[in-house]
Amino acid sequence: MRLLVPFGTRPEIVKLAPVVRELRAVGDDVVVAATGQHHDPALTDVFHAELGVHPDIVLSPGDVAARRLGDIVGDALETVASVRPDAVLVLGDTHTVPAYCLAARNHRVPVIHLEAGMRSFNPTSVEEVNRRVAAATASLHLAPTAIARRFLLAEGVAPERVAVVGNPVLDALRAVGAARLDPAQRCGVLLTAHRATNVDDPQRLAQLVQLVHDLGTQVGHVTFPVHPRTRDSLRRHGLWDALTAAAVTVTDPVPYGEMIALVAAAAVVVTDSGGLQEEASWLGVPVVVLRRSTPRWEGVHAGSAVLAGLDAARALKAALDLTEPATRDRVAAMDCPYGDGHTAGRVARLLHDPATAALLRLDEPDFVDREPPA
């Protein structure tokens, strides 16, 4: 197959790298397009180099925020037209996803959605909208878990179009040799925050700074790799000095292997990131989620992750509870509910299954003298 695989953000690079490698290993012609959604080299170029997947096409949408999404859509239309793929493979819920879904369907190219069916049920979430667009346009839905599959079936997706393959971020972890540490050897807090709802509003940002102080004094030293968006917001709202006065090590974004080492060594991860919830689960580390909903319900149901919103007192209590020895040891012994680290192989086998070809065929229906489906 000739496949177009776009990615625009750091998590997409991490998760798609093992899939691209596997598809190329079995003989597929894979064209990788860097959409430029993340344009900071610390979030893109470093990860291309570290994970060994260099884009064949590098796109540069404009810097004006109000026009950026439009630029990504325009680039997507031109890229699909020039590459002429048999299918477009997208992952997750970034703006890159709906842009390439719409572009693919505009050119009558089928869409394969990896990480399909994840739902936060949050109508204010742009990512939730992006997931819904992907669901409406995909011909093949590659769900990470049985829960994600169930959500898709409830929305009316035909069962034969849904396959549970796991989450490819676990393939990336397996590739770098990430292993669980003895929970008694872990210490401190790894904290990340970058969601607009948490870092753009000065009052919520002040709560984040307070949480860093509280965690540092009551749980353990905090390590905080600061996303460029968060760094700019802290400085813009005059909170940078208050943050750095806490018991915290503030760093720039770190390479993937270094980040995973930080997760593995932490007593608890406190984050609004989605991918970190999966990575911490693989490493047996509990997570406090700085959001009031999550598309990753598996960890919440298992008790290895706790939804706290950006409520400093609630998040602190959750961190203290999760680092109690009994809870810490229970989480460390859990199987990861997001997959087994062999997603890329499943995806490659599925795409080469003769039955998949029929699912990827786009035909105009003929309802002349016929009723539409019920």
Descriptive report:
- With 374 residues, the protein is an alpha/beta fold.
- It is 47% helix and 14% strand.
- It has 18 helices and 13 strands.
- It has helices at residues 10-25, 45-51, 65-83, 96-106, 126-137, 146-154, 169-175, 196-199, 202-218, 228-236, 240-244, 256-265, 275-282, 297-302, 312-322, 325-332, 343-351, 354-359; strands spanning 2-7, 29-34, 57-58, 87-91, 111-114, 140-143, 162-164, 189-192, 222-225, 248-251, 268-271, 287-289, 305-307.
- A 7-stranded parallel β-sheet has the order 3-2-1-4-5-6-7, with helices on both faces. Strands 10-9-8-11-12-13 form a 6-stranded parallel β-sheet, with helices on both faces.
- Helix 2 links the parallel strand 2 and strand 3.
- Helix 4 packs parallel to helix 5.
- 48% of the residues are buried.
- The mean pLDDT is 93.
Strand order of the biggest β-sheet: 3-2-1-4-5-6-7
Which blocks of ≥5 consecutive residues have pLDDT under 50?
Answer: none
Structural class: alpha/beta
Number of helices: 18
Distance between the termini: 34 Å
Question: What Rg, in angstroms, do the CA atoms define?
Answer: 21 Å
Helix content: 40-55%
**How much β-strand is present in the residues?**
5-15%
Shape: globular
Sheet with the most strands, sense and barrel status: 7 strands, parallel
User: How many beta-strand runs?
Assistant: 13
Q: How would you state the average pLDDT, rounded?
A: 93
Provide a concise account of the structure shown.
With 374 residues, the chain is of the alpha/beta class.
Tags for this entry?
47% helix; 374 residues; single chain; six-stranded parallel beta sheet; alpha/beta; seven-stranded parallel beta sheet
